[in-house]
Amino acid sequence: MELKQFSRFFTFWMIWAALALLFVSFLPWRFQVNDDELMMWLVSGAYTGTTESFAVFLHPFLSWSFSKLYFFAPSIPWYPITWFVGMYLSFLTWLRTLEKMALPKNQRLLLTLLLFGFYIHFLFFLQFSIVSAFAIAAGWVARWENSRDEKKKSSLFPSDVLIIFGFLVRPIVLFLFLFASLGIWWCWYRKSSLAKNLALPLLIGIVGGITFWLWVSTQNMQDIKEVNRLRSQVFDHPVLQLQKDQFRDLYPDLYHFSNGLIDFHTHPELTDKLPDWKDLLDQKRADVVNLLGIKAALTTFIAHEHLLLGLFGLLLVFSFLIQPKWTILGLGGLLGVLVLASPFVLIKVQVYGIIFLVAMVCTPLIPSPKSPSDTLINSLIFISISVLAYHVYSFTRSTENLIPGDDLRIDLAGLPPNAQTYLIGKGDYYRDLLFDKPLPFQLLGWPTLLPTTQRKDEGARNFYFVDSATYFNNRKYFLHLERKESRSSMILLASPSCLD
């Protein structure tokens, strides 16, 4: 029986998802990582003065599209709007798919609550890898469910647009889902019809990868791409980020780099150190292959993600109730993969987010030998609602932690006209300036490496706004700078050329 165009279930959650998006947009939401901020500034022209069509991590087609949108309508924040809309459409696709699945109503409600919690959390902390994973997972599970309908002969579905979108946002995420889906197919189904569903995503990945390579080659961006690849491999190296202190005295430049303090603009020779740093860190990989190292790798970037951990725990309990064998095997397999990967990959929050989405794709597909009692499922629903209610309440209090940007604006306005200004700190400090065009500052340690951003005036005056934690943990780095008075909560430092 076909679904009604707008069932009550779908309409209810569609409205709630829209209200949540509107609600979060008026709260101090933020990008979870500097990469999103920098890519937004690049494509909008805020960072270099010209809209750039290459944003390093995005597929060039998407970054080129952003640059054109900003060129014709620069006052519209296209970048975050796209992420918000992508998350919303992905959630609606999940809803449609859950409606089609042969699930009891209370189980469908539980899975919807878990998805809704994930959705609102990562609206508040936008991160491009999560946006990509949420879209791909939604398109993926919709594709698998549609393929079960014998009446649908088409191999293309509207939800496939989300897979393409997710690939353009973060190409590597699509290949992670391909790998996971191959595992799901091998463990549970081994049916040719489901294996064929991997063909289109694989084709998207292959064609997209070829176009990425062609664009980089024809635009002569190979060197920029290689330097950014090396920079990411060094900065996100597990040995460096999990054992920073061992490099403080022997390799001070590497230690400062790990805290985002390398200025490639004024010290371009540091770029040449990246291959040596990568080799050094690779040689020290064995240092993290022990119980303490593995524990640090698995817990460092998840310790404060209480909601994500709670959602994951509820999903595991539900999965265990319907199929304990596969839940134990699946959890053991995922932990095994994480342990084996921990010396090679920094296990960040987005990695856990992607794993959660993979589990969300798997759980409804697990062949269930038994149906849990309504009492158990309703208890999980009650716990989920309580967790989400507390999380929403916490969001409403988030404005109390907002750092006003008025004083920072005054400090920036008081600097000399030819000043080169750097900000060193979390996005909380400059959130009020996030959408300024042009930006009155640059982020130290995260240059675009594009020709238009290279310094033309070596005599320009340098000023540095530094958060106190970074300043006191890296005192040696700032010894040659003079401290100035500042109205903002950040520490203002000036280079020697500013002392006349």
Automatic annotation (TrEMBL):
Name of this chain's protein: Dolichyl-phosphate-mannose-protein mannosyltransferase
Endpoints of the signal sequence: none
Transmembrane segments: 6-26, 78-97, 109-142, 162-186, 198-216, 301-321, 328-345, 375-393
Lineage of the species this protein comes from: Bacteria, Pseudomonadati, Bacteroidota, Cytophagia, Cytophagales
Keyword Transmembrane: yes
Keywords from the UniProt entry: Membrane, Transmembrane, Transmembrane helix
